[in-house]
Amino acid sequence: MQPLMPDDLDRIADLTLAHYNSNAREFWIGTRDHDVRQNTDAFLRHLVGVPPLALLDLGCGPGRDLKTFVDAGHAPVGLDGAERFVTMARAHAGCEVWQQNLLALDLPPARFDGVFANASLFHVPSAELPRVLRQLHATLKPGGVLFTSNPRGNGQEGWQAGRYGAFHDLESWRGFLTTAGFDELEHYYRPPGLPLAQQPWLASVWRRREPG
Q: What residues contact 66, with CB distance under 8 A and at least 6 apart?
């Protein structure tokens, strides 16, 4: 993986977020009714403890899943780099939402019981993914859970429809996560009930590994 310069990272973040800001309303209309209960259920059932747990919705968009976590009795915080999404998520879910982009995270240590990264981490270039995953590991409490769902691929990476994306298969994704200090709990492909060739999404659940 070729290292990226700060100017490259700024360009990736700026252009990708500009795409989402420009299409925020259309994105909300197109995704607000998506049935992602398979993902939220997989995340919630692996959490340790009773509500309210401290959760981070990483790349929360307009706040659809934040509201789900609020309704389940938890104390979620949203995070998104797109200014319009941050405003929409605060209004929709009624909870705290931080404006940060994925390539310049500033997260408190050992704050969260779980991090929910639904359709967000694929925007992180492969060269930067180890750093971002270490940051997520550090912001989780001991035994904390990380959920990820990304469009899968075979290592393709670059610009697509105005957004930067990196598309991993299961083995490469496992390599990144295990190296960053996570143990796999489960994985599956989406949407459910279809042949693998018609399941473009790879979802996985991980637990923060502790030293020793």
A: 57, 60, 76, 78, 89, 92, 93, 95, 97
> pLDDT tens digit string along 142-195?
999 999 999 999 999 999 989 999 999 999 999 999 999 999 999 999 999 999
Would you say 75 and 53 are in contact if contact means Cβ atoms under 8 Å apart?
yes
Q: Please state the pTM of the whole predicted model.
A: 0.96
CB of 84 within 8 A of CB of 20? yes
- Helix residue ranges, H only, 2-140: 6-22, 24-31, 37-46, 64-71, 83-93, 129-139
Q: Could you tell me which of 11, 41, 43 has the C-alpha nearest to residue 113?
A: 43
206 in Cβ contact with 185 (< 8 Å): yes
User: For residues 94 and 210, what is the distance between their CA atoms, to the nearest angstrom?
Assistant: 34
Question: Which neighbouring-strand residues pair with 59?
Answer: none
| Signed CA dihedral, 123, 104, 23, 75: sign only | positive
